[in-house]
DNA sequence: TCCTTCTTTGAAACGCGTTCTACACCCCTA
DNA sequence: TAGGGGTGTAGAACGCGTTTCAAAGAAGGA
């Protein structure tokens, strides 16, 4: 059961850290960012407040940590049911749709996480950097067709742009300006702009 | 002297609001987000704390309000010295470079503002929406060549994508992951991807 | 078994965003 | 000239993120 540390990512061997994260998720699910009071997190996970701070540098750090949980879930999802689209562009859009769905399915939690990620604290940089590369790998793997060639440098650049669009729009979603559907639609539109209408296989 | 309210934007006729904003800018310049203590803002601007909260809904709201000041400055700048680039793509990149420069020139202030904007609080949506449309207009006006045609719907979509990239990268900058030069460079790269290498006039 | 070192704990304390309260002031109308 | 509504002020109070500290365990090594 003890997970072998996933490459380039938060090692969750630490039982306490896991319990703390789980508690944070539960609290965030019901009441969002402000409902995650660290005193409550500590109590709900059965540790002392100091222990929470030993594992996570701040409230934002804790919530960003939730991302690595989501990442594991997404990896499994894509492994068990690969994307169906005929072209790479199609699969790409489906991929972002799935990511968006995952984050927006539990809106309070999603908003809390994105808000934390967007804070731009220096202390979060490391964790976010790790998440970013892991996400990139995940996407690259997910949109790669059965007998596709490798992903070119050009495509990586496009991907980076799309990730930026996705992130910005998610922030728009957390602000109540956009619905999840709009987020996906606008990422799709950006993808079409980048790939040309054809979506070159 | 009393400014006529700028179209679609924070009306700064209110003297107190202006003083509060100025004080916030001064404090943010020296010490960033955390140095903007609302008690200090109130004192420095010669009003009571309650008055600050009468004008601005939160600390973030206040700092986002600074954006409308910057906007005025940018408008003047672009009016007095129009962008020089030969193609629209070139002017576009110059425009984003100027925007980035403006925000990053006073790093503490810039970071504080972006951090506030990225928080994604519902209460900020209105102000940010206004800023967004105003910025869009500003860019459209700035990149429009002397005898250019109007900006097409396609170009507006491209612009929206670039703004997203810009925003995301700025967040990366506030997190210490990117330098201002990298921000500009990556927006430029995205622009080239969107416009094709030519930059179709 | 005792000593050392590291972690965890419980609880208090601090700082600051935010809210609330009581009071003064100003302008307007009767 | 009196009264009243809206705005500003001073200051206290509240909530919660974050830090700090003394004491209690827990794990290893001589």
Automatic annotation (TrEMBL), chains A, B:
Residues 37-56 bind DNA. One of its GO terms (molecular function) is DNA-binding transcription factor activity. Residues 14-74 form the HTH tetR-type domain. Pfam families: TetR_C_20, TetR_N. InterPro entries: Homeodomain-like_sf, HTH-type_TetR-like_transc_reg, HTH_TetR, KstR_C. Keywords: DNA-binding. PANTHER family: HTH-TYPE TRANSCRIPTIONAL REGULATOR PKSA, HTH-TYPE TRANSCRIPTIONAL REGULATOR RUTR. This is TetR/AcrR family transcriptional regulator. It comes from Nannocystis pusilla.
């Amino acid at each position: 059961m003890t997970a072998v540390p996933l490459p380039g990512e938060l090692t969750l061997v630490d039982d306490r850290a896991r319990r703390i994260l789980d508690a944070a998720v539960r609290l965030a699910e019901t009441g969002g960012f402000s409902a995650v009071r660290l005193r409550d997190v500590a109590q709900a996970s059965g540790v002392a407040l100091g222990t929470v701070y030993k594992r996570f540098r701040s409230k934002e750090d804790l919530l960003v940590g939730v991302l690595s949980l989501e990442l594991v879930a997404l990896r499994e999802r894509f492994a068990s049911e690969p994307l169906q689209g005929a072209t790479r562009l199609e699969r790409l859009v489906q991929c972002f749709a799935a990511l968006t769905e995952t984050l927006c399915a539990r809106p309070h939690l999603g908003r809390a996480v994105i808000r934390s990620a967007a804070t731009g604290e220096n202390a979060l940089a490391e964790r976010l950097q790790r998440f970013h590369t892991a996400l990139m790998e995940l996407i690259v793997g997910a949109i790669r067709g059965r007998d596709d060639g490798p992903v070119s440098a050009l495509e990586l650049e496009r991907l980076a742009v799309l990730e930026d669009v996705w992130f910005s729009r998610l922030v728009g979603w957390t602000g109540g300006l956009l619905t999840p559907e709009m987020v996906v639609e606008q990422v799709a539109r950006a993808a079409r702009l980048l790939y040309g209408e054809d979506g070159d296989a």
